[in-house]
């Protein structure tokens, strides 16, 4: 690390001089469904390296490249267009000259952005992800890419191996030890892979040509996953390994870890959309509509039911839209599930207390549309790629905007329209300023009550700095309550989202459901 720091200081002056030139050379106005999207690609090394321009897909059938053919095979939809992050990463990774940090909005096809070029080169691949659901999903995409490659002249067959906890470790170990003449693509959670690397002969033979850290922000900030990733890199990473770190956000706290894991001379690719906050490069896709409303915690059940009513009334055609409702605690998932059952609303749950087969079954039933509403904790907030999800409801607002971005990204995948409804309670007023900024940047409606939270917070802070609080008399109390009623800060019983239909379902008070119960365990073996 000392050597790296010395090198960075030595190169800083030259880097400052050349950075503007390199960034300008790497910038590209890539069109995404007709909208100009800025793709910034900058190189951090000291040598004179030119970043390749975004990959151009061919419309001429006679001149289609292997990437063109593979892309069309995987998406199986002639109307889909490659996204900016896909086109830029394809051109960089196909050359396999530099490691990459890729930052792009959720739903922009980052799995295929790294999966197509790495597998097309027919070299061994390791993808690390934070959850078992992501393992299954990424492995499925890789398997489809490999199937598309079967018609080409592969030197030897690919074997895509998903590795995660909750299943028999012995069978996984035996499968890894019998790879033999196959090119291996391993998709794994760090904990279980580390166990296998320590317990089998596989560790001595597996040195992947490619290592991808998908959801790199989560891998880097987690107290358990981060050290596991570092240990795995120490075992399997070689000087010839190309590393790709992929994420929807790039928070300040993660940057140091990113730079520790990646090579000194890497390419940073950022797809500009809407910043989540000053401390993050997180993005909100422009095709997502955001509707946030300030409400009291005990009124959330009624808000949820009226929102679902509104969505149902807006439905056109026979296809029922898929939606996800996010909760902070498992007990709240169970409580709301009981309410929905009483109302006859078809739904299914997903959380960490379910076994691996139960989780897989929940996702399958949800995706098939048999139960079009998924009640989930944040275990479903990252990487779950179901293109048909049209709306997300944040029953419990997350504690940070990075998680807000990931939840939002479950709707509006692949450029489709989507809507995110959020219930924001007064105890989260510390997030109000950044949330207002985020909503304004996307031209979204801003609840006046959210602005009032910022105003009240500033006022209280000013009073606290001025000395002791004055005594409150009855007149002051009544005056304060009148003002609060005028501002609707406490969420009047008749207040709803501006878009909601007038019909209501009033449910019993839910304030007895404690936030202190059954916290969700996001980490996986």
Automatic annotation (TrEMBL):
Residues 1-11, 462-472 have a biased composition (Basic residues). It catalyses: ATP + H2O = ADP + phosphate + H(+). Residues 312-454 form the Helicase C-terminal domain. Keywords: ATP-binding, Helicase, Hydrolase, Nucleotide-binding, RNA-binding. GO terms for molecular function: ATP binding; hydrolase activity; RNA binding; RNA helicase activity. Its EC number is 3.6.4.13. Residues 91-268 form the Helicase ATP-binding domain. SMART domains: DEXDc (SM00487), HELICc (SM00490). RNA helicase. The Q motif is unique to and characteristic of the DEAD box family of RNA helicases and controls ATP binding and hydrolysis. This is ATP-dependent RNA helicase. It comes from Cylindrotheca closterium.
């Amino acid at each position: 690390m000392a050597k790296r720091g010395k090198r960075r200081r030595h190169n800083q002056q030259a880097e400052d001089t050349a950075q503007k030139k390199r960034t300008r050379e790497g910038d590209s106005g890539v069109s995404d469904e007709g909208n100009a999207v800025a793709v910034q690609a900058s190189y951090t090394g000291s040598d004179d390296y030119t970043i390749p321009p975004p990959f151009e897909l061919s419309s001429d059938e006679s001149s289609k490249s292997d990437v063109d053919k593979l892309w069309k095979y995987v998406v199986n939809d002639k109307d889909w267009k490659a996204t900016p992050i896909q086109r830029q990463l394809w051109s960089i990774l196909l050359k396999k000259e530099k490691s990459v940090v890729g930052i792009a909005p959720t739903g922009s096809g980052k799995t295929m952005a790294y999966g197509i070029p790495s597998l097309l080169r027919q070299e061994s691949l390791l993808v690390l992800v934070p959850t078992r659901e992501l393992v299954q999903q990424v492995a499925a995409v890789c398997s489809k890419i490999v199937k598309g490659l079967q018609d080409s002249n592969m030197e030897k067959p690919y074997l895509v191996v998903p590795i995660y906890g909750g299943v028999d470790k012995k069978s996984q170990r035996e499968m890894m030890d019998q790879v033999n003449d196959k090119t291996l693509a391993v998709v794994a959670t760090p904990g279980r892979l580390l166990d296998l690397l320590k317990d089998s002969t596989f560790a001595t033979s597996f040195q992947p040509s490619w290592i991808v850290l998908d959801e790199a922000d989560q891998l880097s900030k987690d107290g358990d996953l981060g050290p596991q990733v570092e240990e795995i890199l120490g075992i399997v990473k070689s000087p010839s390994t190309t590393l790709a770190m992929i994420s929807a956000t790039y928070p300040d706290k993660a940057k140091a870890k990113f730079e520790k894991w990646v090579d000194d001379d890497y390419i940073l690719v950022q797809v500009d959309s809407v910043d989540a906050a000053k401390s993050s490069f997180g993005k909100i896709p422009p095709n997502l509509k955001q509707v946030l409303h300030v409400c009291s915690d005990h009124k959330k059940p009624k808000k949820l039911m009226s929102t679902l009513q509104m969505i149902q009334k807006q439905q056109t055609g026979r296809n029922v839209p898929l939606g996800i409702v996010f909760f902070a605690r498992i007990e709240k998932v169970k409580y709301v599930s009981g309410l929905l059952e009483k109302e006859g609303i078809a739904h299914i749950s997903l959380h960490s207390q379910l076994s691996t087969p139960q989780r897989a079954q929940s996702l399958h039933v949800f995706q098939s549309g048999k139960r079009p509403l998924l009640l989930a904790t944040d275990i479903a907030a990252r990487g779950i790629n179901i293109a048909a999800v049209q709306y997300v409801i944040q029953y419990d607002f997350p504690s940070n905007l990075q998680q807000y971005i990931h939840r939002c990204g479950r709707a509006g995948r692949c450029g489709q329209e989507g809507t995110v409804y959020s219930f924001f309670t007064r105890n989260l007023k510390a997030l109000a300023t950044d949330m207002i900024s985020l909503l304004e940047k996307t031209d979204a409606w801003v609840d006046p009550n959210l602005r009032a939270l910022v105003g009240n917070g500033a006022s209280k802070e000013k009073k606290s700095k001025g000395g002791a609080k004055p005594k409150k008399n009855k007149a002051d109390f009544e005056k304060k309550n009148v003002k609060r009623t005028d501002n609707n800060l406490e969420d009047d019983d008749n207040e709803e989202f501006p878009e909601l239909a007038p019909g209501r379902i009033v449910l019993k008070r839910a304030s007895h459901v404690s936030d202190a119960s059954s916290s969700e365990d996001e980490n996986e073996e």
